[in-house]
Amino acid sequence: MAGKICVLSIAGSDSGGGAGIQSDLKTFKNHGVYGATVITSVTAQNTKGVKSSFELPSKIIDGQLKCVFDDFNIKAVKTGMLSGPKVIDIIIKHLERRRIKKLVVDPVILSKNNYTMLSNPGIKALREKLLPLTYLLTPNIPEAEILTGMSIETADDLEIAAVMLSDMGARNVLIKGGHMKDAIGFPKGTDILFDKKRFYMFNADYVESKNTHGIGCTLSAAITSNLALGNTLLDSVESAKRYVSKLLKRSVKIGKGFNPVEQ
After folding, report:
1. Cβ contacts of residue 205 below 8 Å, gap of 6+?
2. Quick one: pLDDT at residue 153?
3. So what's the pLDDT on residue 183?
4. Could you tell me which residues come within 8 angstroms of residue 168 by beta carbon, excluding any fewer than 6 positions away?
5. What is the CATH classification number for the domain harbouring 64?
6. Which residues have CB under 8 Å from 152's CB, separation 6+?
7. Is residue 164 part of a domain?
8. Which of 52, 178, 40, 55 minimizes the C-alpha distance to 115?
9. Residue 39 and residue 117: Cα distance in Å, rounded?
10. Considering the domain boundaries, does residue 36 fall inside one?
11. Cys-Cys crosslink for 53: which of 43, 88, 120, 134, Cβ 3.0 to 4.6 Å?
């Protein structure tokens, strides 16, 4: 009997269950892969926002990584909330040692209620140290603006930002267009992928919904699952987009704020 394909999520814990580690595990299960986890931070949050967070001690994060990599044949890794530079340094040590090739980095920087999820020194470390190891970077527009220092208002801006992020070291860059206002020839909800050679646009029927908590985590976890299963990058993104659109269409009200997508 063939063994289960294993993937790893390195991220924060969401007490509301809608994003972070909890969301990733649901997504992994729904894609038929086994999800291992390394928790970087514990957050106190619900659908109304993040109230507080606590970065786990470096020794614990390092220990989790060692245990997972010592026992599982990890086919792909996804990162989410990384808190600060010490966490990033620990992760890089293990990624380089294990020669992980399929690394998906979802640069979680701010929550919907503007709680800081990644410190300024952490942003610097992500740019300078983690991006050169990244197979796919998946920022939304606000995250891409923070990482590049530019304002993104048009489709041309999206392409410029994608090239800038690629020049920082990421092998492929997928900028999620959900925050983009309507632009000529660029429907709302369109994501743009740059692979250092050309641009690809991924369109989906835009779903107007308030229930979008954890949607970025879900998309990047779905892509990670598809890559681990051996799919191409383009097919992995296309499949993940369909998965997220399906969830948005059937989302339900759970809390009093921005509800999570229902998996």
Report:
1. 189, 245
2. 85
3. 55
4. 127, 128, 131, 132, 147
5. 3.40.1190.20
6. 141, 144, 145, 158, 161, 175, 180
7. yes
8. 52
9. 14
10. yes
11. 43
Listed in sequence order, the residues at least 6 apart from 258 whose beta carbon sits closer than 8 Å to its beta carbon are 47, 48, 112, 210, 211, 212, 213
Nearest to 221 by CA among 62, 29, 15, 16: 29
Q: Tokens 């020049």 appear where?
A: 167
CB 17 within 8 A of CB 11: no
User: What pLDDT does 179 receive?
Assistant: 61
- pLDDT for 2 equals 56
Range of the domain at 57: 6-249
| Inter-helix orientation angle 20-30/215-228, to 10° | 40
Contacts of 67 (CB under 8 A, 6+ apart): none
C-alpha 140/C-alpha 215 separation (Å) is 11
Give the residues of the chain that fall short of pLDDT 50: 1, 184
Amino acid making up residue 145: E
Task: Report strand pairing: 49-55 vs 74-79.
Answer: unpaired
Provide the pairing of β-strand 34-46 with 49-55: antiparallel
pLDDT at 186: 65
Give a yes or no: residue 45 inside a domain.
yes
pLDDT at 181: 64
